Amino acid sequence: MRSAAEVAGLLRDGIVSGKYAPNERLIELDLARDLQTNRAVVRGALTQLEAQRLVIREPNRGVRVRSYTAEEAAEILETRALLEGLAARRAAERIDAAGEHALRAVVAAMRERQAAGDLLGYSEHNARFHRTIIEIAAHRTASSLLAALASQAVRYQFRTVLEPGRPARSLAEHEAILDALCAHDGAAAERAMRSHIGNVVATVRAIGERPHLTPDMA
Amino acid sequence: MRSAAEVAGLLRDGIVSGKYAPNERLIELDLARDLQTNRAVVRGALTQLEAQRLVIREPNRGVRVRSYTAEEAAEILETRALLEGLAARRAAERIDAAGEHALRAVVAAMRERQAAGDLLGYSEHNARFHRTIIEIAAHRTASSLLAALASQAVRYQFRTVLEPGRPARSLAEHEAILDALCAHDGAAAERAMRSHIGNVVATVRAIGERPHLTPDMA
DNA sequence: GTCGCCAAGATTGTTGCCAATTATGGCGCC
DNA sequence: GGCGCCATAATTGGCAACAATCTTGGCGAC
Predict the structure, then answer these.
(1) Rama region for B155: left / alpha / beta (φ>0; ψ in -120 to 50; rest)
(2) Same domain for A60 and A89?
């Protein structure tokens, strides 16, 4: 039987990937059936996601997938910038040939997707780039906080990559991070990562300020 | 009936305050009795604490309170420095007369306890100082991450305040943070907070490097 | 005396059930 | 035709019992 922690992970993936839409109700019995587990485990997983603010629970009314205002999204990304900046610094200090190879491959894939105009594919590789850096950093505390952070859900809700001109700039920012990492320059890597996520924050704020589009139409 | 979230809070307090010692086994039935709830919500609370890495769960063997190596403690504090630095910056931008008054009172109490040689009392007010700043910052994301962080457990396990000379320096560092906050200087507040927690990290590392004392004797 | 096996007790993991609460849909009333 | 009330269904919240697993302590063999 799946543990509550595993089920929480599956649910998180489902929320992040859009399988469960913002504001969608999550019915314990249905989830238990879908994930082949029992209600008790689902309940435990849901309280975990509640603590991580990925879902909202209302007494006797169950949980719904949370949706974020632009201001909240900016807060989340602001925090993520700090934590990933730390990860980038550590990664620059620890990266080896294998890690460098892996990262270069991801960036090459990003460049290719961007050139092909496949924005969602680009977004996928983008996420993988960040995950790889966190892995290389091997900072368990930062890693577990980042995993708990709703930043992936925000990524799904605010598709910054669809903004005109954003993919090209994003690619350049990732290349700057890669360069700093390969040069083993921790301070530069941290700066590049913060600046990159800072630009994402700015884009999210810009999306949020467009008055007539509600965020979850993205 | 208490919710899982509430119970998780109570258990966290118990761990942080030393009511539950590092490596102590936490028996679901006992906790349910002590906290006047049932096993199901205790289980939910424990999975939450497991995700926050405050306890370790081994299958079919229950959960134990986690204990931290100096290296892990340093990682946790390193993360806390970033998040509280962010909170300090925001607090400097938002602080009003009431907040200033509250913070000054806390620091006065710290000064008084330190002069009286009451180190544990000092440590209490110290914790309150940090909590107050986080409150003033009103940054929900950072606040919930900090709440999840095991930094309070670390504080209990590594009693840096008992190190010779540490209380006086600590007091000076807190006064520097207070000054920056009252001057509404966000950058200075962030710098002061990071530097302060950086010194705590250094102290923890020093404690960890003393070979013959295991950390949990503190 | 020590080692290993076995039984009993303790604890966790799972399941099902019932009560309380909320959502849904039909029905009559205006 | 629309609105509100009521019965019913769906869902959550809480509980207890059962099964599986681990731990403990005793007993006998060597």
Answers:
(1) alpha
(2) no
